Amino acid sequence: MTKDEHRSTVRVLSILLALSNNPDGLTLAELSQQLAAPKSSLFPIVHTMADQNFASYNEVTQKYSIGLNAYLTGIAYMETHNIFERLQEEMKSIVNQCSEICQLGILDHSDVLYLAKVDSPEPIRLSSSIGKRLPAYCTSLGKSLLCECTKEELEVLFPNPLIPFTPNTVKSVDELYKQLLVVRTTSIAIERGETHPDISCISTPLFHNGKPAASISVSIPTFRFTPEKQAQIEQILISAKPRFEKLLEQNERIF
């Protein structure tokens, strides 16, 4: 927290973020652990948030989750920023061409924050959700978003050993940096079973003011990830990239 930030306000916002990242809800003890704050200081805040419908309390599970008014606030944001509608239209075009799920994300510290998706029409497909976060180092979207980072910047973002999700997960910052150099050259990032052994993903970075501001990806079950499918999706993403970047240019403050 900086000296200009109001402690109580920061605490409320931290609670909202924690609840949004845990759709199954959190107990007061779990909130306390996640926020490194005493339960005695969190209780009056989260109790007031529940009274005002910004949080919801389940008496059976004793867990707090996002409340109706927090949901309505998010809906108001989406309606105010119609860029999401236009982004969704472009993403639908990608899905229509390849029949696989398309997702859009931004970098949030060292994580990818998923902001939009259009599902695949295939019966066997990736299950995903808007608002989820995954470590940037092991996702295709993340590698696109990190592609302009120096090795030193990566070491600051990931000071601890990289946690493996599967045997395919990138194992070190050195290995990650080598992959990012390829992304810079090709404008394509590929993740093969790094977060889930049965899912592969291809993405491209979307630049604004000379830096990756967002990224779009297509995810594919591994059994459908043939060389022909990979080439098709790479071409679709590269063709769509200028249209997405034009939308970002027209809506400078959205991210």
Features:
45% helix; 255 residues; 6-stranded antiparallel beta sheet; alpha+beta; single chain; two-stranded antiparallel sheet; 2 domains; Arc Repressor Mutant, subunit A; globular; Beta-Lactamase
Distance between the termini: 21 Å
| Unreliable spans | none
The CATH class of the largest domain, by name, is Alpha Beta
SSE string, helix = H, strand = E?
HHHEEHHEEEHHHEEEH
Q: How would you state the average pLDDT, rounded?
A: 90
Total beta strands: 8
β-strand percent reads: 15-25%
Domain count: the total is 2
Strand order of the largest sheet: 5-4-3-8-7-6
The CATH topology of the largest domain is what?
Beta-Lactamase
Tell the overall outline. globular
- Number of distinct helices: 9
Structural class: alpha+beta
The CATH homologous superfamily of the largest domain is called GAF domain
Rg (C-alpha, Å)? 20 Å
- The CATH architecture of the largest domain is 2-Layer Sandwich
Largest sheet: 6 strands, antiparallel
